[in-house]
Fold this sequence. Notes:
Blueprint: H1 2-10, H2 13-24, E1 35-41, E2 44-51, E3 57-64, E4 72-74, E5 79-81, E6 97-102, E7 104-109, E8 114-117, E9 130-135, E10 142-148, E11 159-164, E12 172-179, E13 182-188, E14 194-200, E15 211-212, E16 226-228, E17 231-235, E18 241-244, E19 251-252, E20 261-265, E21 270-273, E22 277-281, E23 288-292, E24 300-308, E25 316-323, E26 333-338, E27 345-346, E28 360-368, E29 371-379, E30 393-395, E31 403-404, E32 423-427, E33 433-437, E34 443-449
Parallel strand pairs: 5-10
Antiparallel strand pairs: 1-6, 2-3, 4-5, 7-8, 7-9, 9-10, 11-34, 12-13, 13-14, 14-15, 16-17, 17-18, 18-19, 20-21, 21-22, 22-23, 24-25, 25-26, 26-27, 28-29, 29-30, 30-31, 32-33, 33-34
Amino acid sequence: xxxILVACLMFSPLFLLTSCLEEGGDEYTIDPYVALKSFSLDxxxxxxxxxxxxxxxxxxxxxxxxxxxxxxxxxxxxxxYNPDSLPxxxxxxxxxxxxxxxxxxxxxxxxxKTYTVITSTDSLDFxxxxxxxxxxxGGEFVQEYKVTVNAHKIDPYLMVWDSLSVAAxxxxxxxxxxxxxxxxxxxxxxxxxxxxxxxxLDAPVAWSVAAPLSSGNETLQLESIKLFKDxxxxxxxxxxxxxxxxxxxxxxxxxxxxxxxxxxxTGSELWAVxxxxxxxxxxxxxxxxxxxxxxxxxxxxxxxxxxPLATNxxxxxxxxxxxxTEEENARPMVWNKLSTEDEWSRxxxxxxxxxxxxxxxxxxxxxxxxxxxxxxxKGLFGKDSVDAFSAIYTSPDNGLTWSELSNSKIKLxxxxxxxxxxxxxxxxxxxYMWIVTGGEKPSVWRGVINRxxxxx
Length: 456
C-alpha cells in the first residue's frame, strides 16, 4: 500500500507543491539542482493607434519578436527580467512563454491562489510581476523566482504638453533664449515698454518679476536680440550695437550706428547686416564685411538655427528663415551656410509650389529631434490660408521643401489653435519645446516627445 501511495505522489507534483507551500507557510526546501535554466517570450502583438487621412482614429496591429528581448535569470536573487523594455502597446495579458528548467515550472496566481503548469501553448498574464516555481518531480524541492516582463508604460513617440505659469506683464513676447540654467523672455507690455523676465529650467514654477530694460536714450529692437558667448547683443532703432550681461542693463559696444539687424549667433560667430553688407564678428566687438547684402535676404521675423551635419559632426549648417520686407504680401525666404563656406546661399523654389515654406505671420522655425519644424500664426494666402497654430510643418531637406507634418502623435496644444496672438518659440537644452503667447489670453506651453527623455 505504501508503494502505491508513493508512486501516486511522484506523479502529482502540483499537488505536493501546493500542499507543501500551504502547510509550511511558504517554507520549502531548496535544492541546487532544481532551477530555471532559460525564459523567453514568443512573438507578441503590438497595437498602435493613429489617425487616418480622413481624420478617423484607428488601430494597427504588428508583431514584436520576443527573441529580440532576452531575459536575465539572476540565480542569486531569484529574479527574472528583460533589461530592454518591450515597446509601448504590447499586450502582456496573453503571453506565450518558453521555459527550460531542471524540474517542472509552475506559475502562481495571487488572486486565485492556484498554480498552473507552464506550457508553450497556453497564454499567461504577465502584465504584473509573477511568482514562478520550479519543483522537483516529487515536489519536495522547490525554487521560487520573481518574473517581471518590462514594457514601456508611456508612448515614446507621443508629444506631451504642459501648461505653465505666464510671465506677468509681458503682453507681446518677442524673443527668448536659454542662459545658465534659465530661460530669458524679452517682450513689451500693453503700452510698448520693453521688459525682461526669466524662469528656472529645472523648476519652471514661476517667472521672475518683469524688469524694464535700461538702454539710456537708445531704443532696443527686441527682435534683434541674440545670445552670443554668454552675453546678450542687440541693435537699437538708430543702428547702435548694444551689449548686456543679464539682459536688463544695456551699454553700447562702440560709437558705431551702421547696424540694421543681428540675424544669427553661432558658437563662434555673431552675424549682422547693415544697409548694404553682411557682417561677421568672432568677439562681438569687431565686425568685418563678408559680402554685399543680397536681394531677398531675411531681415524680419528671422529664425536662425545652427546644427551639425548628419554626415559630419565637425561641420555645422546655419539655416535662416524669415521675411525680406515687412510688406503683407512678402513670402518667407530660406538661406543657409555651412561652416566651411564664406557666403550665404538662398534656396530657390517657386512661390506657388505645394512645397514652398509656409507663409505664416509670425513664423518660427526650430531644429528639433533631428528635424526642422515650423509653426506660426495665421496663414496669409494661397495654400497657407489656415488658422494660427493649426499644424506643424516640417522640412526633410534642411529648408528646401516643406509639408504639413503627418505624424498624428506630434501635435501642438489644442487650445492654441486659432490663437492669433504674438508668440515666440524655442527648444531648450533639455529637449523641451517652448511656446509663449501674449495677447488677451497669454499662455506658456512646454512640450516634449517622450522618447527624448529616455536615458541612453
